[in-house]
Amino acid sequence: MLKIGIMGGTFNPVHNGHLIAAKAARDQFKLDKVLFITGGNPPHKKGQPILDGTARHKMVSLAIAGEEKTEACDYEIKKETYSYTFETLKHLKKEYKDAQLYFIVGADSFHDIPTWYKPRAIMELCTILVYDREGYNPKEDLKNIKSEYYCNVEFIKSVKVNVSSSQIRELVGEGKDISALVPKVVEEYIARNGIYRKSDESIKKRLKKALNGERYSHSIGVSSTATALAKKYKVDENQAYIAGLLHDCAKNLSKEQMMQKCEDYDVELDEFEKANPVLIHAKVGARVAEIEYGIRDKEVISAIGWHTLGYVGMGLLEKIILVADMIEPGRHYPGVENLRKIAFEDIDKALLECMNQTVSFNSAKGRDIHPNAYEIIKWLNK
Ligand SMILES: [Fe+2]
Ligand SMILES: [Fe+2]
Description:
alpha/beta; 20 helices; 6 strands; elongated; binds fe (ii) ion
């Protein structure tokens, strides 16, 4: 008889604890397959804001890719109505006719099962496999449940999960590291899509306080221009939006504050930057965005860090931010109209033009020019 494990959950987001529990259940009970079923709109979480099912399911699919005998199932998120465990089990019973179902739950959910929709039917449809959660005593709960229901319950050995999805959401909101709690692919997906990040409004509020009025309007302009360029060049618009918004987040710091941030946040400066402090705001801004604004997307951080200098081999998002900085609607200088046009036709050509302008503008003022500018010009002319 086929033995199917069912790992249900909101997975908001899926984390290492889920994966460890599923693996342990699979091995201990010799399950033929474990299905990760992303909850659509769990009744017991009614009214709470919850991330869209597609995004949660995507994270599940990423997390289990390459995992043996494990599949992601989108049955619940495809349903338009609330999804009840009882209905899902019934559905699976039909799909896998002669299979034995094993429902894998944390001790917290196990404690709550009697309050779920049709608990009796749930317990009749499957064997429940329980893994430990801090603060719960499933053996005690089992006694209570057994006094009222017929049920098959087994305990998954030596798995205690001390990580929770809500803890992860909070950490991301605070810009903290979650790499020890979720698979790398999930961490990247969260960062890339700005999931659980502080809302754009709170980022804008903070930025408005950090910048003068003119610099803030400029940042809004770069953000919208970068978003439009991202759309044109099929780069993630969300990344462009946030990198544009925060590219100058350190620009209005005083020189002393800037130096202090370099020290506090381990920003290394080259000789040229030490001699030309006006350039430092990019590198410092990258760290400020990361630490103070909670941005974890490495590509966004890199685009902020390189928006003044650029480098040979820079990526599309980095090019977009550098160019958007030069052409946002608040910029007025001879030739800007033409550069705006070029930017939407050929981003490399626009970048080359930006670099040529930087060189001629700074040489006219008798300023030193960073070697990156010449190298980029050579690179793009090839
Ligand atoms: Fe800047
Ligand atoms: Fe700027």
